[in-house]
Every structure is written in structure tokens, then in C-alpha cells.
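LOG
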Amino acid sequence: MEKSKKMYNYHAFGLEIASEVELPGMIQGSGNPDVKILLNKVDPTLVSDAEVEGPNYVVKDGDVFLWWDDIGKVKISEGKQVTVEAIADLDDSSEINIIPFLLGPVMSLLLHQRGFLILHGSSVKTDGGAVSFLGYRGNGKSTTAIHLYTKGYPLVTDDILAIKFREDGLPLVYPGYPHVRLGEDSYLQVKDNTDILTPIKTLAGKVFCDASHKFSPEPVILKRIYVLEKTDKMGITRLKSQETIIDLIRHSVANRIFQHTTQKENLIHCAQLINKVNVRKLEISHSYPDIQQLISMVEDDFNQD
């Protein structure tokens, strides 16, 4: 008889998750799963007549296949199950490379399958609701969020902004994991207020850092979105509606991988969002001596409402 595998139970994005892969820095769950992460064989070469194909992904019916050289392969099925075939043994420290992908792009796509609007962003909780930061990799989403966290604003989510709409149309942000991923320079700026959770380091060189103080799994109404633009200056400007919708689509998961399959629904959700939330462009300087000035400027702006 095959030995049963140990299951780890977690809670994130309003979901109970049972996983055969141990995942760091997550809230413990109840054990009654909405989602399962299982270890098994994954073979994307068996897929024919794919709806969407890319350099490392295939979409067919309710399944998304992803793969990464020297890391592993994943199948995401109908927002309910993730099947993982890692290159290395799970007991091998080299296997840790797959974990950032499970917590990042894999979770993003699973949440999209479950009907969330997924934007590439981080957010913190203020008295008026969640304030979020959208941007491309390296533009400072996590750095901005962690500096606000150290000023007393609880983290809501890092890198995955998962949104659903209430019956009255207001958007809710569903909290993810009580940690952020920081590069070494960013971590050194805040190391007195957080600590590295695990030796796991992403391929981009980022580490998992604790941000669990006052973290709550309850959804938060989204108050404001800042679209980050990396420049040599700092400033906040209002965006026109046309600019706003383009930026939201550009930073959505559906735009990157699902293309024509769910683009109409994604466009509707983005349009619904800009009708309820103020969206502004945040020009952000990556000069670390200026970071406190930037944080004060953002704090003054969202506290005006």
C-alpha cells in the first residue's frame, strides 16, 4: 500500500488550501480545503488543440499548464487543484526554487480561474480601506508596501492583488500571505522592523520577510490604487479614465496569459473597478535616501480623503 503523503493546511485569499508541499510564511488553515496542491506527474506535451500557447504555458479548457527549466511543471485545474511535478526531490534544499512560483504565478492563475480580478500589486490597510500599488517587477511595489507597514499600516497582500466585488459594487481585496518578498537593499532598509522568514530566495534574488503584525485574513474595501512608474523624480498625478483602464488591463493576469479566452470579462471587471476606486500615477525614485520622502508623500495623499 502506498504511504499517504503529509498534508499541510493553509488559509489565503479567503480560501482553505491543503498542500502536499510545505509552504513558508502562510496562515494555518482549518483542513477543509477549497483548493488542493498535490504531487504527481504533469505532461503538457499531451495537450492538443490548445486555446492559448506560450513559451512556457498552455491553456486548454479548464486547465493551465506551466513549466520552468530546472524547476518543474505545474497543472492548474478549474481553480480547485494544482498538480506539481518538481525537478528535485522535495526533501532536497534545491527544490525550494519551485515554491516562489507556487505562491506567485500559480496562485494568481488559480485565483483568476475562481473569478477574481487579479492585478500585479501589493497593498496595505489604512483607516479608509486598502491602498494598493501596481507595477512591473522591480518598480517598487513591495518596497513601498513594507515601508508603509513599518509605519503601522498592516499588510494586506504582496504581489498578488486579488479582488472581488460586493453586491453593491464595491471592490474587496482578499488578504494573501503575511510576508513580502524583498531584495537585499530593500531588506536592509527595514531589517529592524521585519526579519527573513526562511532561507528561500527567489530566482530574482528576493527573500521572504515577515510582515505578520496585525495581519488579518478578512477582506478589505479597496480605497485607492497607485500605478508605479520608475523615474528619476517623485510625484503623484491623477489619471484619465482611458489611461486608467489601459494600466489596469496591462497589470492584470488575464492580459498576460489568457488573452482572448477571458479578456471580455477582465475588461468588464477593470471598468467596474475604475468606477469605484481612485487611481493615480505614482512616480517613484529608486534612490533609497528619498524613500521616506516618498512614503510621506503617499501617506499624505491617501489620508486626504
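LOG (cont.) second protein
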Amino acid sequence: MLGWKNRLAPPKRSRPTGCLLILSLLVSSPCSPTAAGGVRKSDVDLELVLAVDVSSSMSLAEQRVQRDGYISAFRHPDFERAIGSGARGAIAVSYLEWAGPKYQRVVLPWTIISSAGDAKRFADALSMKPIMAETGTSISSGLLAAAGLFAHIQVAGERRVIDISGDGPNNAGPPVGPIRDMLTGSGITINGLPVSLPHSDANGFQSFAGQYLSLYYEHCVIGGPDAFVIGIDDLAIFEVAIRRKLLLEIAGVPARPRLASYAGPGALTFDCSMPGTAPR
């Protein structure tokens, strides 16, 4: 089933000193609309980083379905229509894969997409890249790597969004909460695609229920104006969920709750500072 949930920007908290360099790069980026030298007119409607989990807890078949979901989304006619609905009719996209604290790989660098042809070429390029799996699930390190890409983009966007998928809670690297707060405090919106697929006991990995992982992402990962979660607990809906999420992000339309496969707010609480903390 598909789970939807909105979240407004979380309250600001103290930022870890080890991550201040990332924040300074984001603020001082020469392509930022508010960089030194005056306000610059935006070149694109959206700067979007697709931060995709490739941890080894997902099987090769699941990784393939996930990759194909993104490829199909870029080839779908609705994708071009969503881009055309923007004031500038163009977005900038980068595709990043992440796993443990030491693994973040830019699969496709920043690419301007303003037509169906651009989107198809992006999808074709992605389809040619090998699928790799690595150990660990460091959401915090994945977010930092995604945020760092904004410092190297050569255009200015009206909005900055990180679209991060994952099949488990942060279990390595820095705590995710302070990283989330630092990035949203710099003007980045973080949306989540938690993946809760059933795993057999034979693979040795823990399976997280859709209710738990969707709420974990809501409370500990996403943030910024109109941030939202779309949870996936069925392999068959991967493609539709990814496409719907991208269309909402491109159009800049707040995702109002429609269908939920998990309990309402307040049902569970989380300690986001602990890796894989169980809800209370």
C-alpha cells in the first residue's frame, strides 16, 4: 500500500560542527539565488537530488525494480507535463546512490531537463548504469552527500529538494536528526520514500513494517516546507509511487494526506539520535 504524510519544517536544533563546511558551501554557492553579488534570477524551477538507497538489505530484484521505477518515471508523458507547468519549464536533476557512511556515488551528474527528449536521454543514461549494492544504511551520510551536490550546480533553482529513499532507519554514521535540521535550515526540503518490503528469514536482514518505517521517516528524516513521505510496502506499486512522488516535487504541489497504511500522528514516538531505535 501507499502511505502519504506531510511535515512542516522541524524546529531548528544545534548543528554538528563537523558538518558546518557543508552548510557554508550551501550558503556561499555562486549559483545560489541569494549569493554575494545580488539576487540572481532562477534558471530552473527545481534543483532535485534523487538519493537512492542501494544497501545490501535490498535484493538484486528489488534494486532492479527500484531503478526501473525511476527510469519509467522519466519516460512517462506526465513527467514532461509536470516540468512544463513550471514558470521556467526546466528542472535540474542529479542521481545519487548511497549505503553506509563511506559509500555515496553520483550515478548521473546535474542534468537540465526541459523537454521529453531531455527526460528520455536521462532515463536512457540511467538504464545503462550498473546496479551495485553496499553494506550499511547511513541516511545522514546520504543526505550530506546529496546536499553537497548543490554547491556544484551551475544554475540557480527556485527550490532545492532531496528525494531520499531507504529500506531501514539510520544505523551508521552521524545521527540523522541534526543533519536533517541543518539542511532544512539552509532552505532544502527533504522528502522521503521509505521502502518496507517483506524479506525472508533466510537473507538475514530485518524487515521493517510500513507503519514503523514511514513514521520514522516522518519524524526523523523529512523536513522543510511541504515535505512529505510516500511509503512503499508492495513491490508492484514501486513504479507508480516513484512517478507520483516526482510529479509532486516537480510541480511544487503539497502532498495532502490521501491514503495511509500506518497509524495517525502520535501513535508512536522515536528517538532519532539512536540507530534503529524501536518506537515507544
